[in-house]
Amino acid sequence: MGFVLGFALLVLVLILFTMVRVVKQGFVYTIERLGKYTLAAQPGLHFLVPFVDRVGHKVNMMEQVLDIPGQEIITADNAMVGVDAVVFFQVLDAGKAAYEVANLYGAIMALTTTNLRTVMGSMDLDETLSKRDEINARLLVVVDEATSPWGIKITRVEIKDIRPPLDISEAMARQMKAERVKRAEILEAEGDRASRILRSEGEKQAAILTAEGKREAAYRDAEARERGAEAEAKATQLVSDAIAQSGNAAINYFIAQEYTKAVAKFADSPNAKTILFPIEATQLIGSLGGIGELLGDALKPATGDVTTRVAVAAPGTSTRAPRATVPRSRDS
Q1: How many CB atoms lie within 10 A of CB 98?
Q2: 6 belongs to a structural domain
Q3: Is the pTM of this model over 0.70?
């Protein structure tokens, strides 16, 4: 009796175990009734009909990453490159993902690999290296469209690495170096040209400014000479008018004035108190009296106590030259 009771309890526990199912967050369980898909169990507690319902597949509904192994791809210009890629996808319909395709991960990997060969095989090597975004976009459209009947969504397709052959890599490195050297030489030549142009412009401006300065100086000098000549001409005209009006008296006046200035300069000499200079009596005998009077009148107001003595020797009376003695004042 106890054995039967224990067996009954064991069967009851097994029945309860098969009836109750707890679905974890992020997963969906497909429920099969007598082998037919009937329900997609969402996360939480679920009760099944014992011996009738069972869990078919446990489908991961989170976004997943599938690593595509490296592939050797021949490009349009017959260059062989190695390519690695990754695919991001998410299951939207658990029933389709479980029953529309036998091996979901293998199918996605095969589909991505074939389309990767198709897309990159239609491009040159330079395009495959420089247009990764375009390759990713084309792969995303093609693979997502092909996998939509399986109830999944392809969110991203990314090329991880593109490995060209070693000789092509070395040739590309040399090409890049030559290109950079060419750019450097071009920039250096452009800088030198700009420097020469700026230097020439500076020299040009300096020459222009120098020429303008010389022209202005020459203009000012010519203007000064012109005004000096005008003043000299005016003075000459005034003298001519005075001579024309006064005759010999004006001439004697001007001669006496210049002679007085010359004597005054001799009198201001710091090195001599007595000045000797020859006078030809026969040439100056007619105007000496007038000159003396004018000289006395000119020197009296200026010096106060200066006394002028003029001695004229007759020709043949003495071998010494006549002299005019001008004593200097105490103040000088």
Answers
A1: 22
A2: yes
A3: no
